[in-house]
Design a protein that fits this description.
four-stranded antiparallel β-sheet; six-stranded mixed β-sheet; Rossmann fold; 2 domains; disordered N terminus; elongated; 20 helices; 12% strand; binds adenosine-5'-triphosphate; ABC transporter transmembrane region fold; single chain; 581 residues; 12 strands; alpha/beta
């Protein structure tokens, strides 16, 4: 455990490095503020003694002026410290947020399948917010508090050893207590963050599925789940909070005892004439002031517990590794790419094989149509081809090269995929077509959309390419969304394209537009089409029929069509499109 804690601290310091200049400035300002805090009670003590001895009014005015200047300066420094502290917190935690998001975007689909988007938001932002105050203030305030304590106690030892002894004992007890129980709330704070992430996950999931929720009268059920999730957050939150405030409450009790003891001693020394009234005030004031740094340390211990649970979760996330490891080969043959599956097997979970020993080859420039019943493994085949998952056995080659040996960017540059579930992003039509790539000009975009037959559609929009689209894609039909996605892929000029056709019924006009677009797109590349319509299969060179993850049939389309015993010929004869689904 000790080494783990050490590790999490070193990991944190890398984020503080870029702001170390500002941290140093913070520390200097805090030290000045500490000195000013120590000086002011001395001025007041001198003021009391001067007044008690019937001193000069001018001396009293001078002391009052000095007090005012010191107090105002201290306040100004406090404001500046808080400004710089916030700045440091944002700068360092934004870098961490960026690293977490980048890391998550590179994690494999097995990881993402287990996490809801709401949970990811909590992990990338919520956990980090918990760390931010720690980043900003922890180190400087802990150092500042210790300096203030040392200043007060050091001075008191010069004045009266017994009183200083009582104050030191109290201080050490309070600090010792906090050190001993500083980890008390860490696990419960971590649990609190987990339940909160689950709550956000639930809200996001249900809002994303609002159509289904409303259409199925699912609202009471959703509310029930929501209340249960909120109850968990409340219970874990209350427990975490209680465990965090115990150290603080304990020091309050200790402090009351210390003030009583010091005051009794001080009054005794004053009554026996050993100290002046001003000194009695100073002793009282310094004892009161001990509370501030100790309370500050207590607050920081609380913050530390909160931050530590966030740090543990963030570090856990950053140390999770993607199962998809990039290869180091970059070069693929020019032009269309051949595709080869050799004895490929794949499963999501060990107890359920999804693809079984698939072997087939598609030559460069050919088109392959994949058919099979629902759940036969068609989409899974396209996912392993794009390396969204690693296969469990066999080799997949593109252009003769094992895809695991290829650099991932090289693979994605040459291979495109259009899924049924097209994602729109909040932005203009242009942004959505180019995927925010500023290098693609409007001419390129319009030329491509023109070739795909989308010109009339774009011209009909009020602002053309500048039309704003909202995320989610509710404004597009399935066919339009596919045309859209085809444009995106087309703009990247891929050498191998995997296309999952929409299975929903398209109107005749959109269907022919889609067909034209596909033909146009596939002219210069190899195509793998998960076919949902017999019409599409007329355009392909080869057909692969999947059944329960096995190849039921693979061959040249024309040969299969002319063989009355083939599945494909039977499909053609009966025209049963549902077999393709
Ligand atoms: N992310 C996943 N995790 C676990 N199992 C999955 C996952 N995705 C699919 N499966 C399972 O793998 C099998 C093949 O699914 P796949 O989506 O590849 O079939 P499909 O032929 O594309 O079906 P459809 O035509 O309905 O899209 C199914 O039994 C499915 O339940």
């Amino acid at each position: 455990m000790a080494t783990k804690e050490k590790l999490s601290m070193t990991w944190l310091f890398t984020y503080l490095k870029p702001v170390r200049g500002k941290l140093a400035l913070l520390l200097v300002m805090l030290l000045i503020s500490t000195a000013l805090q120590l000086i002011n009670p001395q001025i007041v003590a001198r003021f009391i003694d001067t007044a008690a001895e019937d001193g000069l009014v001018s001396s009293l005015l001078l002391l009052a002026g000095a007090f005012l200047i010191v107090a105002v300066s201290n306040q100004l420094i406090t404001v500046a410290v808080s400004y710089i502290g916030n700045d440091v917190a944002w700068r360092s935690t934004n870098k961490l947020r960026g690293d977490l998001l980048r890391h998550c975007l590179k994690l494999d689909m097995r990881f993402h399948n287990l996490k809801t988007p709401g949970e990811m938001i909590e992990r990338v932002d919520g956990d980090v917010t918990g760390i931010s105050n720690f980043f900003a203030m922890f180190i400087v305030q802990v150092i500042g508090s210790f300096v203030l304590l040392a200043g007060i106690l050091g001075y008191m030892f010069n004045v009266n050893v017994l009183i200083a002894g009582v104050m030191t004992l109290f201080t050490l007890l309070a600090i010792l207590f906090m050190v001993i129980i500083r980890n008390l709330g860490v696990q419960s704070s971590k649990k609190e963050r987990e339940t909160s992430a689950a709550l956000f996950g639930l809200i996001e999931e249900r809002i994303a599925g609002i159509e289904d929720v409303q259409a199925n009268g699912h609202v009471p059920y959703v509310m029930n789940r929501f209340y249960r999730a909120m109850r968990s957050v409340a219970i874990t939150g209350r427990r975490a909070w209680m465990l965090r405030i115990i150290p603080w409450n304990t020091t309050v009790v200790l402090f009351a005892l210390a003030v009583t003891a010091v005051l009794m001693l001080g009054v005794h020394y004053y009554l026996t004439g050993k100290i002046s009234l001003g000194m009695l005030f100073l002793i009282y004031q310094y004892t009161q002031m001990l509370n501030d740094p100790i309370e500050m340390l207590g607050d920081q211990v609380q913050e530390f517990q909160k931050a530590k649970s966030g740090m543990l979760r963030s570090r856990e996330l950053l140390s999770s590794r993607s199962e998809i490891v990039s290869g180091d080969q970059e070069l693929l043959p020019e032009g269309a790419l051949s595709l080869e599956f050799e004895a490929v097997s794949f499963h999501y979970s060990e107890d359920k094989p999804v693809l079984n020993n698939l072997t087939f080859r598609v030559e460069a420039g050919e088109r392959l149509g994949i058919i099979g019943r629902t759940g036969s493994g068609k989409s899974s085949l396209s996912r392993v081809l794009l390396r969204l998952y690693n296969i469990n056995q066999g080799v997949i080659r593109i252009g003769g090269i094992d895809i695991t040996k290829l650099k991932l960017p090289a693979l994605y540059q040459r291979v495109g995929m259009v899924t049924q579930d097209v994602q729109l992003f909040d932005g203009t039509l242009r942004d959505n077509l180019t995927l925010f790539n500023p290098d693609l000009t409007d001419e390129q975009v319009l030329e491509t959309t023109g070739r795909l037959g989308l010109s009339t559609w774009i011209e009909a929009l009020p602002n053309g390419l500048d039309t704003h689209l909202s995320s989610g894609g509710s404004s597009l039909s399935a066919g339009e969304a596919q045309l859209f996605a085809l444009t995106r892929v087309f703009l990247t000029e891929p050498s191998l394209v995997v296309l999952d056709e929409p299975s929903s019924r398209l109107d005749a006009a959109t269907e022919s537009m889609l067909q034209l677009a596909v033909d146009s797109l596939m002219k210069h590349c190899t195509g793998v089409i998960i076919a949902h319509r017999l019409a599409t299969l007329e355009q392909v060179d080869k057909i692969l029929m999947l059944g329960d993850g096995h190849i039921l049939e693979f061959g040249d389309r024309e040969e299969l069509a002319s063989n009355p015993d083939s599945h494909y010929a039977k499909l053609l004869a009966t025209g049963r499109e549902e077999e393709l689904a």
